[in-house]
Amino acid sequence: MIVLRVALLPLLLALACVTAFPRQAHAAPLDYDITAGHFYSQANGEAGAGGSGFSVTDKDGIAFWSEFQRLGGVAVLGYPISHRFIWKGTVVQAFQKVVMQWQPATASVSFVNIFDELRDAGKDEWLKVVCSTPKQVWLENESSLGWSEVARQRQAFLDVNPKIKAAYFAVADPVMMFGLPASRVEDMGNAFVVRLQRAVIQQWKVNTPWAKAGEVTIANGGDIGKQSGILPADALQPSGPDGAVAVPQAIAPASGARTVVIDPGHGDKEIGASYRFADGVVLLEKDINLKIAQRVATLLRGAGYRVVLTRDADVAVNRTGADLNGDGKVTADDDLQARIDIANKEKANVLVSVHNNGHPSPDQHGTEVYYNDKRPFASKNLRLAQILQRSLVSSLASAGYNTLDRGIRTDASIKQGESFYILGPQGKRIARSSEMPAALGESLFVSNPTDAAQLRSDTMIQAIARGYAVGISQFLSTDS
Ligand SMILES: [Zn+2]
User: Fold this and answer.
1) Which of the 8 DSSP states describes residue 446?
2) Which of 56, 244, 249, 370 has the CB geometry, 3.0–4.6 Å to 440, for a possible disulfide?
3) Bridge partners for 219 per DSSP
4) Element (H, E) at 441
5) Ligand 1 centre from 315 Cα, in Å?
6) What is the spatial distance between Cα 1 and Cα 11, in angstroms, rounded to a whole number?
7) Could you give the CA distance from residue 151 to residue 155 in angstroms, rounded to a whole number?
């Protein structure tokens, strides 16, 4: 758990709702023709690295590829983010902006009203927290109005905000792309927001890391459907064009001398997050973090890596209680400074801090990895976080737990622009920063009953450890 100011969550977590378009990661072609379709690796979670991705095809008489091209392709619909799969009795495929649904009667596609699906799946509260999305509202006697009258009245919701209205009508066919407005334009605190049937449009009132005050952003339906956990995890797992899953599963052996420093978060009086089960058992984050870290060390040592743990028992790392950062007081910051100093002294190639999450709301659950984007080696931090995120999620899935993939986040996104001590650059608060790429993993939420139950299971602890070990080895074996 990273201590945060809870009131900031709606703003800060909303970052996750802004679609980041994948950047060109390497020279190999990111997409190419295959039999009866096209293969795209751009939205594979690693900006195309590794070459896995999703095919869009006309196979089995389901003309997703033809329809994708007819409707405007990547420019209009975004990249594919899932394989095709059967959902509620129809064949669908998710793209960044929309979820395509095959209509056998007309041999064409329509788009799923993903925000209606999210409402029906009980995700309105999640949408409010993560995307500042208002709830759906109904018109008076809506069911007795004709479609065009419903459309007229619902589109009139946008009149109060010309910028949001302009963004809605800026696409060629707003009703097809976005559906109708499902809510009025609501003041959600940090932004004016309208919920559409297939997207959310936000106009920001404050400067954020992703938009200036006054700017309008669109949170895309496909991406949010994926993030929400309502789509099946295996359909979202990228694979090769032949359908073979290409998620890294093996621990790559060390090539040459490689030192990994694993930092089990908290220790001694710093317990981190905690959970009390009905049977009286209490789970402490500091204990789980240590157990995971020790297993990561065993797995990596077995593959030839030199591994140093910042603590190998339930102790503080700043054992002598020294003022290590020289700010005139001894606080938790000094304990974090001690961890950084170990990584630097050991000349680690990579530093990974192992945590599990906590939140005042027991509903919050899932897996996320933090990185710092303000370092000279920020792109390596990003790549490490991406690989760890994917590896943790897939390792948990193969152990039988489909954790919610909350994605990667910058540390500044949760601490109001401030870096995490363990990840950030040297500055006013951080006396000495780490000198190697680093990331901080929050494998599951100790504060969520379902996640906490997994953390009691030896199989899942091992799966998390394996996720870290596979990810770290993949990062180091492909690090230039
Ligand atoms: Zn923690």
Assistant:
1) T
2) 370
3) 200
4) strand 438-445
5) 15
6) 19
7) 6
Rounded to the nearest angstrom, the distance between the alpha carbon of 166 and the centre of ligand 1 is: 43
Enclosing H/E stretch for 33: strand 31-34
DSSP assignment string, 239-286: B-TTS-B----SPPPP-SS-EEEEEE--BTTB--SEEE-TTS-EEEHH
Ligand 1 centroid to 272 CA: how many Å?
Answer: 5
Q: Which of 44-58, 116-130, 285-299, 333-347 has the lowest mean pLDDT?
A: 44-58
223 Cα to the center of ligand 1, angstroms: 27
| Residue 353 contacts residue 422 (beta carbons within 8 Å) | yes
- Is residue 216 classed as helix, strand or coil in its secondary structure? strand
Q: Which residues surround ligand 1, an ion (CB under 5 A)?
A: 1, 265, 272, 355
Q: What is the pLDDT of residue 4?
A: 45
Alpha-carbon distance 423 to 409, whole Å? 12
pLDDT in tens, 142-175: 889 999 999 999 999 999 999 999 999 998 889 9
10 pLDDT band, cuts 50/70/90, is very low
Q: Can you tell me the mean pLDDT for 181-185?
A: 96
* Digit-coded pLDDT (tens) for 369-420: 999 999 999 989 998 998 899 899 989 988 889 899 888 899 988 877 789 9
Q: How far is CA 318 from CA 268, 323, 331, in A?
A: 11, 9, 10
Quote the ligand 1 centre to 266 CA distance (angstroms): 6
User: What amino acid is encoded at 109 in this protein?
Assistant: V
Residue 15 clears pLDDT 50, i.e. is over it: no
Contacts of 289 (CB under 8 A, 6+ apart): 264, 265, 266, 272, 354, 355, 356
pLDDT tens readout for residues 291-329:
999 999 999 999 999 999 999 999 999 999 999 999 999
**Mean pLDDT across the stretch 9-28?**
45
Asked whether residue 124 carries a pLDDT value surpassing 80, the answer given is yes
Domains and CATH numbers, the chain: 1-241 (no CATH), 259-477 (3.40.630.40)
pTM: 0.55
Q: How far is the CA of 3 from the centre of ligand 1 (A)?
A: 8
